[in-house]
Amino acid sequence: MRLQRRLASLAISGILASTISVSPAFADGVPDYPGASRVSVGADNSAVKRMQQALIDLGYDISVANGKYGPQTTRAVSKFYADNGDSDDGTQVGPIGWAEIFIALDSLKDEQRSNKDFEEASPEEVQAQIDPSIIPENQRGKQPARGTSSRSLPYKMPVVGEISAVYNQKGRRWSGRRHDGIDIRAPRGTVIKVVYPGKVIFSGWKKAYGRLVIMEHADGTTTWYAHMSKRIAKKGDYLEVGEKIGLVGSSGHTTGSHLHFEAHNKNDETINPVTWLQLRVWKNAPANELPTEAVSNPSPSPATTAVVVPDNSLPISERR
Questions:
Q1: DSSP readout, 43-54?
Q2: Which domains does the chain have, with CATH numbers?
């Protein structure tokens, strides 16, 4: 087992301290082990809360870090062990498992610091994008900051949630490769909706993607909706904006409940999904946020002009 091998390695190197009463300092940022009774089913304390937050940051499916060691935490701990090559029912975290969780979190943070080849938009930049008639060149395709609510973005997203990974991000979750899409963390069962009309050309299971729906759009591009708990759209369906595609889940290769959203060009090559969204589903400023003069004046203004895109309303069968 991976945890056992790493334990042996640490013991040989002299790093391992007593695992009975003292937690070994395996890595910077690993807090002292609080003892088995404080991190087992039924416990309710700050140590559990700290561990829950670490697991959430690692992408495991815990809705909130509340300090209560219940079924959701048990499942997350068990899955963490399984992802690290071990088998455990998750009802208790030992000193080695405790250290592994925080070592993994440190590793993830290091990867994010060293592999930040993508740009993130600050909250101010996101706000500045809310309502231009032309998308500024330096903003086109720029990734939102992780942790941003999808509701706050200037373009529509297929699900309400929190950005947890972005396009072109690199990390061990993708076996050292770049991330092909954008991830939106949301509770299991959250509805995924169409943001741009198209035809469903695939609805089924696809290896690491799990339950997947692929839509083809009138301009030849496709969008992929992965890791669902349930597929609602069926192959051959033509879906309009607002119709249901499926429900958020964690099927396939994933560490927690989220939607993985990809965009492909007509040659089936992955493209920046943010650019795809910006050019097609840009939001208008809400009327109640416009100045009084703009509301009373019926003439168009830059504050209410949407991005102009080609008419792609024809069904795919009619455009060929």
A1: -BSHHHHHHHHH
A2: 2-114 (1.10.101.10), 120-285+294-300+307-315 (2.70.70.10)
**Does residue 318 sit in helix, strand or coil?**
helix
pTM for the full predicted model? 0.52
Hey, how many other C-beta atoms are within 10 angstroms of the C-beta on 138? 9
Return left, alpha or beta for 167; rule: phi > 0 is left, psi -120 to 50 is alpha, else beta.
Answer: beta
- Cβ atoms of 220 and 269 within 8 Å: the answer is no
> Can you tell me which residue has the tokens 């991330």?
179
C-alpha–C-alpha distance, residues 101 and 81, integer Å: 9
Q: For residue 22, which phi and psi values (nearest 5 degrees)?
A: -125, 130
Q: What is the pLDDT of residues 151-201, one digit of tens each?
A: 888 888 999 999 888 877 765 555 556 778 889 999 989 999 999 999 999
Distance CA 56, CA 288 (A): 36
Please list the alpha-helical segments (H only) found in the chain. 2-12, 46-57, 71-83, 95-114, 123-128, 273-278, 292-296, 316-319
**Are 99 and 28 in contact, with CB atoms under 8 Å apart?**
no
CB contact set of 311 (below 8 Å; sequence gap of 6+): none
Nearest to 155 by CA among 263, 61, 228: 263
Which of helix, strand or coil describes residue 144? strand
Residue 268 CA to residue 308 CA, distance in Å, equals 25
For residue 291, which amino acid is it? P
CA angle in degrees (0–180, nearest 5) for 156-157-161: 130
Is residue 22 within 8 Å of 3, Cβ to Cβ? no
Tokens 């706000």 -> residue: 127
